[in-house]
Amino acid sequence: MNNHLLKYQHNCGFVITKFVIILNQFMRTLTTCFCAGLCLLLCTSFQPAGKWVNLLDKDLSQWNKYLSFKHTDGDGGKIPKDANGKDIKAIGYNKDTAHVFSVKMENGQPMLHISGEIYGCVFTKQDFSNYRLMLKVRWGKNKFIPRLHEYKDSGVLYNSQGPSGVDYWHSWMLGQEFQVGEGTMGDYWPIASAHMDIRSTKRRDTTTYIFDPKGEKHDYGGYCQAIADYETKGEGAWTQLELIVFGDKALQIVNGHVAMALSNSRYKDGDVVKPLTHGKIQLQCESAEVDYKDIKIQQITAMPSQYAAYFK
């Protein structure tokens, strides 16, 4: 009788112990999920709607850096080789010993200077969605291989996700590009497997499509030209850029003019199409000296009503 009682007590104790272990595991999982959700909420809800937030300071404290390679003439975007014919390793994150990215003070305000000599970018530490981004850009004098004989080039990349180096030039994250280039401000380029829908028409006697608010909507996994060239001309002249992102839609605005309207932001993960509606902001270094200033962002709760017609 006593032996049966002892065995029964032992079994009960074992069951209770297992239950406590399972309960603890469940609580740890629940806590982890709660913390992850809270982190995502804090990342995407950066400020109350309507408040402008400066993204640039003298310490570049809200940005990280990524540098890949000094691309060479004729490498076609491939990873450069060393003397033994092996791929050179990318410089990587926050290893800017060449001072490609620096902040200078101009009239008491911080200005981001990008030398242009090594491909790469600065990118925000924070993930953003549903916002207006304002910034100004101007060109420096220097250009570098492999774009010595091409127009000066940079870009504002948005909805940027994942690791750097997944693009054609092995230098940037997956994302959408608001082109910043001489005579090409506001053009669209997809980065990696990104896609957008754009109303456009084909330019006469070319294979190039140009943004046309009254044109037919096309799926773009490639280049589309802005409706017009609104860039401020002249040495040292600043051009005002504005990017509006809400949900899966975006507007690329140059000096107050809508250069491009885009919708259905997405990307391909293998054969699966996924939405691309939030992410980090990247500013490209692409063989041209360039400056950015007055970089600020505002959270919004709707696409501004004056632009609604672009998305009908």
TrEMBL record:
The 3-keto-alpha-glucoside-1,2-lyase/3-keto-2-hydroxy-glucal hydratase domain is annotated at 51-298
Q: Which domain of life is it from?
A: Bacteria
A GO molecular-function descriptor = hydrolase activity
**Any Pfam family:** 3keto-disac_hyd
Q: What is this protein called?
A: 3-keto-alpha-glucoside-1,2-lyase/3-keto-2-hydroxy-glucal hydratase domain-containing protein
